[in-house]
């Protein structure tokens, strides 16, 4: 894990992500890239192409660069290689473009979640990154004084398309020497017998050099609720799962378990795109 990207809007949620990123970077000798997307009003976007407000745009950019430098000097970041990046772009679009042109091993984002009509209509930049990023995304929902991941809950249906991202789960688990708890959530619409579920997981893990792990079936009315309840029951420090990255009408009608968890979980959530 050489490079960790942490987008910041200078909010307390972003600061909480930076603090976690510092702990991971020190543990693994990683570089942190702090990136701020300077979203400009429409008239200022026009200014970039020739109007008279360019000095004002540059003032905002300079202020953002100064703020990033002040973050870089925080004591908990001492000893970590920090790169500061300011881009004139929309938050999600800019982050996505940066990822496409620069290899990152992990993205860490803070999120306060959303609910009700805001969740349906506007969502959040964190959710959009979770949905589309080819790089694993760690979402921090609350302040974490010590990011000591002793218990990781990985929830899945353990289908064949999960195998590639699952290796990244094992790599993350190895980094923290965590206890890995595999769980299959069975709902009324996706019921499997205990025998069938154990066979699926046994076949799945046979392709990997597995650490010590446990596997359980958890019955619940829906998958999201099942994952959250199981994670609480097992006192998990981290919830890990894979996302299909649905977009458009498919996403609107079927929803995304990963995005729902990003919104509603209080524990950190680590997602891997299939």
From TrEMBL:
PANTHER family: STRESS RESPONSE PROTEIN NHAX (PTHR46268), UNIVERSAL STRESS PROTEIN UP12 (PTHR46268:SF6). Coiled coil: none annotated. The lineage of its organism: Bacteria, Pseudomonadati, Bacteroidota, Flavobacteriia, Flavobacteriales. Pfam families: Usp. InterPro entries: Rossmann-like_a/b/a_fold, Universal_stress_UspA, UspA. Residues 1-141, 222-272 form the UspA domain. This is Universal stress protein UspA. Signal peptide: none annotated. Belongs to the universal stress protein A family. It comes from Flavobacterium gilvum.
């Amino acid at each position: 894990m050489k490079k960790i990207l942490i987008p910041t809007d200078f909010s307390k949620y972003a600061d909480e992500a930076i603090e976690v990123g510092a702990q991971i970077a020190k543990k693994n000798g990683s570089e942190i890239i702090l990136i701020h997307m300077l979203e400009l009003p429409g008239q200022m976007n026009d200014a970039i192409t020739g109007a008279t407000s360019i000095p004002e745009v540059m003032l905002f950019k300079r202020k953002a660069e100064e703020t990033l430098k002040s973050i870089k000097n925080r004591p908990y970041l001492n000893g970590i290689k920090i790169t500061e990046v300011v881009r004139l772009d929309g938050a999600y679009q800019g982050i996505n473009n940066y990822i496409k042109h620069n290899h990152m091993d992990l993205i860490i984002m803070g999120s306060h979640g959303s609910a009700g009509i805001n969740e349906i209509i506007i969502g959040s930049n964190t959710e959009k990154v979770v949905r589309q990023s080819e790089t694993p995304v760690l979402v921090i929902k609350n302040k974490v004084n010590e990011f000591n991941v002793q218990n990781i809950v990985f929830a899945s249906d353990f289908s064949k398309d999960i195998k590639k991202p699952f290796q990244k789960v094992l790599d993350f688990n190895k980094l923290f020497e965590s206890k890995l708890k595999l769980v299959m959530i069975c709902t009324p619409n996706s019921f499997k017998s205990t025998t069938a579920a154990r066979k699926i997981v046994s076949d799945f893990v046979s392709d990997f050099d597995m650490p010590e792990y446990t596997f359980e079936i958890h019955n619940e009315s829906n998958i999201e609720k099942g994952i959250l309840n199981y994670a609480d029951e097992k006192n998990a420090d981290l919830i890990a799962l894979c996302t299909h990255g649905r977009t458009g009408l498919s996403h609107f009608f079927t929803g995304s378990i990963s995005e729902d968890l990003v919104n509603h979980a209080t524990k950190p959530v680590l997602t891997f795109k299939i």
